[in-house]
Amino acid sequence: INVQQHQEQVTITLAERNPAMDFTLSLALCLAYLATIPSTSASKSKAQVFLKHYEQKEIPGLGTYHPVQDAAGKHIPLVRFDNQGRATITVRGPSEGETHPMTSDHHIEAVFLLDQDKNIVCEHEFKNENIASYTCDALDDSVTEVTAYELCNLHGLFAGPTLNVALEKQFGMIFAPDENAAPNTPGYFHKPSVVDPENPLKHEPVLNIMSTHKHTGTVRVRGPGNTLKHGGHPQDYKINHYIKALAILDQHDRVVAFQDMSGKTKDTTFPSSRAQFDLTIADTLTPPASKLTPYSFCNLHGTWTGSAVKLVAVARDEL
Questions:
Q1: Global pTM value
Q2: Is the pLDDT of residue 162 over 70?
């Protein structure tokens, strides 16, 4: 058997056939042909197709491309880092807290992450899976920003917001919930639905926006008596009871501000004897932050969520 290949065309020439040839020849012929197929002929992944056509509204084979919108909603991918630095991409469903359905008629085909240079750093194509969620391997240290994308079989390709990896990892290291944690213990996550502005609780963070133009403000944490009197929650390292970290998430659950308040000795306090964080939200976020929710983490009592604050949209030339 002589096999020759030229410009992806294969020519197979057989020597004069011996009548005794049988199935062995047929098998050898098939194997010889398969060996000539170049690896580059494999179909491109969904992420590779997108990168080739990302400036187009309609992407061949993927459908309509939907750039990230100001508000989070169905189809918008959510990225959350765990305490090991791994990113999980989850596709939002029709209601808050729900994931996108995965039925034969309506499902997510693929998710992927692109870094700041549009390199594919994680991708996954779903095959008969029940949950529209995928956990990536830990990202390389060179990755500073990531943007998530998801492909729906009916509605096309959707982009999420661009995330600051350093902030997301810091948040995940401390705020990642422990599903087995008992209430009011480290690792327990007090969900936002628990927040009641009429009946505030100790440990709840309170965000006060000082300037809507520059998006600056202060986060304080309610202390004894469920108030902010005397500065709010104490930072008492001598009795080992303090706020370990404060964070701000926007309408996309994107971490836009973070302050680690741990790592101090029992003889010091930071930044004062009470838990307080002065912050500035960048005005270069894509999309801009329009709603901010504060989070606090107590070293003894877990994560607490405060009431969200809506920001006033301001034209850049008004700043």
A1: 0.78
A2: yes
